[in-house]
């Protein structure tokens, strides 16, 4: 539903996203060197024709840094199925570009550090927010990395603090492993282009100021329907470096309908 099921078509649309006028404008070079420092980002998760060019900014940036060992994917639970904070059990995720293994060792380390985590496949079965990141990751990295998919129905700040604390501890306890940690979230939904941009900017200002409490405050005060705000908070609380917005746009910029739009942002920590 969100990207082509055919390998050749999927590769074409990913390259289209990189080359799109709203995208970074060129296709990243192949990644061979290992990532030297852990990397963090926020990416959108709509259909590729809508949010793909904005997501491509993050993946273009990641390709320039090097290849990680593990990619931790944190996103919202749109379906209401499964447990409040669910890690996918030991398995593989398959796309037309191949299969990537879930990292059982890192998942187990998270489980022993906090009781918020549950191994639960049900929460992931119909959830798109993490799955749609995988073809982009495979495009830049190949298939020789592992993933830790975490979907969050419970996005309260106290839960995201517990998630971030456990994740930071795991990262710090594995200095030989290089991590990429990505929050998957769209921003405001279904207002006009201008209203979505204005609401989104309040979220972006909170992220740039590294003020996670303000993130929750503005979302509540201005009724901003960012679906993965908890995932964003978790990355804000985990990341090192300075956040930078690489691209901010709406579905109007890519789909042409400016009356009911969804906001998308590509954010990295440098």
Describe what you observe in this structure.
- The protein has 270 residues and is an alpha/beta fold.
- It has helices at residues 7-19, 48-65, 104-113, 134-141, 157-173, 193-208, 212-221, 229-238, 251-255, and strands at 39-43, 70-76, 85-87, 92-95, 98-102, 118-119, 146-152, 179-184, 189-191, 243-250, 261-269.
- Strands 1, 2, 3, 4, 5, 6, 7, 8, 9, 10 and 11 form an 11-stranded mixed beta sheet that branches.
- A hairpin with a 2-residue loop joins strand 4 (92-95) and strand 5 (98-102).
- The chain is globular and about 45 Å long.
- The chain starts with 6 loop residues before the first helix and ends with a strand.
Short key terms for the protein model shown above:
single chain; Protocatechuate 4,5-dioxygenase, Chain B; 270 residues; globular; alpha/beta
Quick synopsis:
With 270 residues, this protein is an alpha/beta fold. It has a single domain (7-269), classed as LigB-like (Protocatechuate 4,5-dioxygenase, Chain B, 3-Layer(aba) Sandwich).
């Amino acid at each position: 539903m969100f990207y082509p099921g055919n390998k050749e078509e999927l590769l074409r649309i990913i390259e289209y996203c990189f080359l799109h006028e709203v995208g970074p404008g060129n296709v990243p070079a192949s990644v061979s060197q290992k990532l030297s420092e852990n990397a963090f980002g926020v990416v959108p998760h709509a259909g590729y024709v809508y949010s793909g060019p904005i997501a491509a900014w993050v993946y273009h940036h990641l390709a320039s840094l090097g290849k990680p060992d593990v990619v931790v994917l944190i996103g919202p639970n749109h379906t209401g199925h499964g447990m409040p904070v669910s890690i996918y059990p030991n398995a593989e995720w398959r796309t037309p570009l191949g299969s990537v293994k879930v990292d059982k060792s890192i998942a187990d380390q998270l489980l022993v550090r906090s009781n918020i985590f549950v191994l639960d496949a049900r929460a992931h079965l119909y959830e798109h927010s993490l799955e749609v990141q995988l073809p982009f990751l495979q495009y830049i990295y190949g298939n020789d990395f592992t993933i830790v998919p975490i979907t969050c129905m419970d996005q309260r700040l106290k839960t995201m603090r517990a998630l971030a604390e456990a994740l930071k501890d795991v990262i710090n306890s594995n200095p030989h492993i290089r991590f990429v940690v990505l929050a998957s979230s769209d921003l405001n939904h279904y207002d006009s282009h201008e209203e979505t941009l204005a609401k989104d900017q309040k979220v972006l200002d909170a992220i740039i100021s590294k003020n996670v409490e303000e993130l929750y405050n503005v979302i509540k005060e201005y009724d901003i329907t960012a679906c993965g705000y908890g995932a964003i908070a978790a990355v804000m609380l985990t990341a090192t470096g300075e956040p930078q917005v690489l691209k901010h746009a709406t579905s109007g910029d890519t789909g042409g309908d400016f009356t009911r739009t969804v906001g998308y942002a590509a954010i990295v920590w440098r």
